[in-house]
Amino acid sequence: MIRLFAATSFAALLALPSLALADGDDPQVQYRQSVMSIIGTNMAAIGDILKHRLTMPGAIANHADQMAEAAALIAPAFKKQVAAEATDAKAEIWQDWAKFEAAIEDYRSAASALAEANRSGDAAATGQAVRTLGKSCGGCHKPFRKPKEESYKNR
Amino acid sequence: MRLMLALVVCLLAAEAAADLENGRRVFAATGGCTCHTNYPGEGADAPSLAGGRALETPFGVFYSTNITRDRETGIGGWSDADFIRAMREGLSPAGENYFPVFPYPAFTGLSDADLVDLKAYLDSLPATQRENRPPDAPFPFTWRAAVSGWKWLNFEPGRLEPNPAKSPVWNRGRYLVEAAAHCGECHTSRTLTGGLNESIPLAGSRDGPEGQLAPNITPDAKTGIGQWDRADLVWYLETGLKPDGDDTQGLMSEVIEHGYANLPAEDLEAIAFYLRTIPAIENAVVAD
Questions:
Q1: Cβ atoms < 10 Å from Cβ of B274
Q2: Which of A43, A72, B114, B279 sits a CA distance of 20 to 30 A from B131?
Q3: Does residue B21 sit in the same domain as residue B134?
Q4: pLDDT tens digits for A93-133?
Q5: Are residues B179 and B259 in the same domain?
Q6: CB contact under 8 A, B245 and A41
Q7: Interface mutation target, options B249, B263, B269, chain A, most CBs of A under 10 Å
Q8: Whose CA is closest to B160, among B99, B87, B81?
């Protein structure tokens, strides 16, 4: 009986840290995900306008401006390395911070270029700038975000 | 009289010549033959279509081949008939079986004209000299003769003929999805013998290319893309951007960038139209 008690207590102790991590409520991670969703929501809104040919004068440039501004929020949000299960941030972010910042700058400049292209009224340039902006998302996600095969969302 | 003759000769030549512009379109529809460029190993500067890309499969690692017009190491010495036989029957000019990591079970459906035009387009691109690399796989998966047994079980050669009961846009979409874009090669799971599991077509695979998960692309609302409308699908294939604004990763991002994004709007519309008509299959694709 004592042995059984000892064994179960030991197992419970072992399980404790992983239970705490699996919770996924780390406020820093939540904040990072909120920042990312600002960006994703603006990108989705731009897609809504273009794919459905909605008449929304100036809206694409406005969304692109918001995306460029949100770029400044990314690095501070990731500055603190948080080890938690419920995140897709890869350790490479903190191993190569300069590369991470360079990828953010590529994204910011692609967002600004889209705002400019859209203000010029050139539909073809706007379409191309959207593709470049979308690719810049991948420019950061490929090296620094876990692929879906390793994502906590698929566990 | 001479002028007349010259005109006739010109007209005949024009008829026989491949249509490069259509070749470019077929190339885009295949996803830009992206598996033949080693982007993962060599980055954005990888020599285009020169092969050497490691393709992980449950049967071992196979390396894509050089399909540039280099005569020694590529396919520059091939006739149109050689090219058609490779794509339709999975056979080399010397009559050897290709490993089915080369998706000839899909390409077999392409028309002769599209195949000839695709070859002409490939022949118009730069040549790169690079030897093909043999697979890193255990016996018998490296034994080309054994592929005959695989073909007997899993492969039926032949052009994909239109279904007269369906609309032209449906038929075009089916041709693109099933043959040219070879969607099922990644998005349909496989049987134990490595054939496509035709009982759940396009419902996703845990053993996708390069160890990736290939999502369910049937119209199932819960586990597939049933919540994507036609415009979402067209936009996705044009830009790689999903309805929630997220980008695409893995091999799919490459086949969009180098292939599908360069298709004319009517082809993207046809793909979207067809994909929304296939049976919805509930099948959640998650990692092990």
A1: 22
A2: B114
A3: yes
A4: 999 999 999 999 999 999 999 999 999 999 999 999 999 99
A5: yes
A6: yes
A7: B249
A8: B87
